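Input:
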Amino acid sequence: MIKITNLEKYYRTEEVETVALNKLSFEVREGEFVAVMGPSGCGKSTLLNIVGLLDDPDGGSFLFNGEEVAGYNERQRANLRKHNIGFVFQSFNLIDELTVFENVELPLIYTKVNAAERKKRVEVVLDKMQIMHRRNHFPQQLSGGQQQRVAVARAVVNNPKLILADEPTGNLDSSNGNEVMQMLTDLNEQGTTVIMVTHSEHDAKYSHRIIRMLDGQSVTENILV
Amino acid sequence: MIKNYFKIAIRSFVKDRTYAIINLIGLAISLTGVLIILAYVKYELSFDHYYSHSPRIYRIAVEQKKDSIVEKTLTFPDPLAYTLKNEFPEIESVSKLIPREVDFVINNKISHVDLIKVDSNFLNIFDLPFLYGDRKTALIKKGNIVLTESTAKKLFPKQNVIGKELKYRDHQGVFQTYIVSGVIKDIPPNTHFHTEAIVSESVAQETLNWSSYSTTGFKYIMLKKEADIRALQKKVLSIYKKYEFPKSVNILFQPVTSIHLHSNIEGEYYKNSSIKNIYIFSFVAFLILFIACINYINLTIARSLQRVKEVGMRKVMGADKNQLAVQFISESIIFFCIALPVSFFIAYLFWPLFTDIAGIKADRVYLLNYEFIALVILLSFIIGILSGAYPAFFLSKLEPSSILKNGQKSFRVNLNIRKALIVFQFVISIALIVSTIIVHRQYSLLTNMPLGFSKNDLIILPKQNFNGKAGSFKNELKTSKDILDVSFSSWKLSQTYAGSASMTHPSDSTKEWDFGFVAADLDFLKTLQIKLIEGNDFSTSPISASLDMDSLLNPQGKRLSRKEFIDFVNKRPIIVTKSTTEGLGLKRPVVGQVLTFSALQGTVIGEIADFNGISLLEKSPMVVIQADVNPDFGNTYLRINSKNIPQTLDFIKKKWEIFFPESNFEYSFMEDQIAELYKEQQRLATLFTTFAILAIVISLMGLFSLVALIAQQKTKEIGIRIVLGATVIEIISLLSRSFIKLILVAFIIATPLVLWIMNIWLQDYQYRISISWEIFLITGLGCLFFALLIVSFQAIKAAVANPIKSLRTE
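Output:
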């Protein structure tokens, strides 16, 4: 599904050039659950942004479903992203002014799903995430675990082929964390590819494979399953 | 999608309610100002569109070249209009209008009515709607009168007025009668003439003769439907030769709809407005709107710092730039749409107050009609889009990956643009304030300039035919101890002197001497408290005893010979002003000199410092006071004691009614008459003040919320500084430093701009103030003071907050 070859990304300020990704290559097949690990600053988040089509690489090749997307412009990336990729963040990133229902509904609005269909699909996914009873609450009124469940619901409502999770349990206690990890595992079992960045060895154990990174390069790949 | 935008817009307003409300109030106030100004402009532009033939109606005027100056005048031979009609078939109709005042006697009571005398064509051109009677026949018969609705009610309450008789005395004192033949709707205030009644007068068929002619009132033509005025304007040249037009004369056709704003000829029906005011106020409206838009843009950008996460998330979800731009622009439109009804409501409430200040008689129709509302809504949309465009552009450009990684820290507002906007806002405010002060000072100069006489406690009774009772009337008045002096004079404070003459400078043919004559009795100088600088007053001059004009002009019923007449006028005592002496280049001493110019003859018996008896807006001629011992006709001037004024007025009224029972008693104070002359300037000053205050209030409101937001964003910085030992003063200076710089920059930009514009404005005045530096100083310091006040308020609030709290929330 994803094939990355010699991917490069630099961050430049006036004086320094920082290499975030240094000729990184790896592949993720459809239906895999991959964890990316490594110390702070090793380029995990940069990688996730590029894979999530939020950022473009400075060099190398990035095949998404066999299609070269490295040179895509913003509009093309946005289009591909909104139909194929769901995101889960450490800090949830729910919009404070929208209710639970409206937050989950948002991706469907941007993919131009009609209102009746939206309602149906949001309700199904809220039900699945067991957060239906909170549908009219605002994010601030929920616990961290509940907020992350909403975020997961939002990530999957569009039935994406790929879910990118950036330390999804980082702001949660262990029981809520486990719950979220279980959700991701379930989604993966239903066929969704999951790539997860994490610091936690415990969480990484839920995945099939761990890619370990250091200084913008992948150093080892542990096959867990 | 739109529903979603709307929801999020409303919720984010509610979340930031303080700023939203300040923003909204500022916007509503400025929109109110704009609405009122727009309605005012619409009213001013609506003049004389009332008649169905308006586009075809023109008033005739004449252009005359005098010493390379082109002067417009409404004075030309009466037959000109009718001659044009006979010569040019494209003129469908022609009519005249002569304003008159009549005192009708109904049941022994006098009712004063302003009427116009017209010919029978008048109602075909100006199709004023009839309530009773027939337009076609109402004015055909001589002696018919058409009343307006309210005049009919005033003269004959609750009666059918058609066929009723109205009696009045003509100038020979003989009773004449009009018969009411029709009632028209009241003439709306937005017409260039105004009247309570219309009577018809036949037209004497005379041939056009420019060498000697009589002239009365105004003349109008109505073109045929297909005719073109420009073609006619060219064609009229062809008759100049035939009728021996003077060389310098040219006929003008003034569209009736443009008289109110574009015509300011001597002898207008009443003083018209000026298109300049329309430009000024439209510009002010634009500025006010601009200030409000700047507030909106600045606050939106500042607030958007809190919405970075939302923008980022929307992008992650797949929103593209355009969708985000549409979202923020629609938010801005929503905001304007909320402000709009509020401002309509405020404008509706304040409209009567405004019309009162502006001195116009426009009702709320100008504010509340579909066309106007539609225009304003459209305007709000456009402005909503323009104001929303910058923040939208700005926010939609944000990179989602960096927002999500770094949160708000990644978000760097381009402060230069915001600074430029604030500078611009203060440039406008400073410019408006300085202009307002200048307009006020100019007005105060006009009303307080020494006129050469004392204007306090001076009562004027209007022009009256004394019927030989002038002397006894005066003696009777002087029996009151509160009436100090009484004098009769031809002069009345106005735009021009009643008597005037001009002649070419005897040794320089490019220059002209203009004289203004004041005919007055012997007590004039004493009553008006005019100071003599040389010579004698009429009453103390040795030759005054032999000054009875009538007896001299017509001694024992015998006509004077030409030589005797010239001798007489050369002997006639005159008092000149110092500027007359200087203007004529007379040698000193002037007293005793006999002047024998073609336009001025007489023997100078005294010289006074100055006398300004006309509006200071006009160029003052050289003033000469002529003695008129036993006037038949004139205004009465009374110098009274400032105490017991009501009793004194009562006394004068009683005496008036004994002496002149046929005339209504009217009086005015000189101070009021002077104020009346500069009503337009006063109006301008008041309007300017109103809108300048509006502008500065909106600017300061914007500054207030902007500083509040900045303080909020700097909470952490302020907290750290306080923890490290900064004082409140240091925090104030931290927050205010940049704003003070901006105001200084605004001041530097505004100063030359205002100097330039206001110097142009002052050029219109014969007597004008010089713009002094302290006006700028006061304004600059004032702005600085208020800005500092606002910044300090927020700074103190931030500084006294517990730093532990602000540091923990991060």
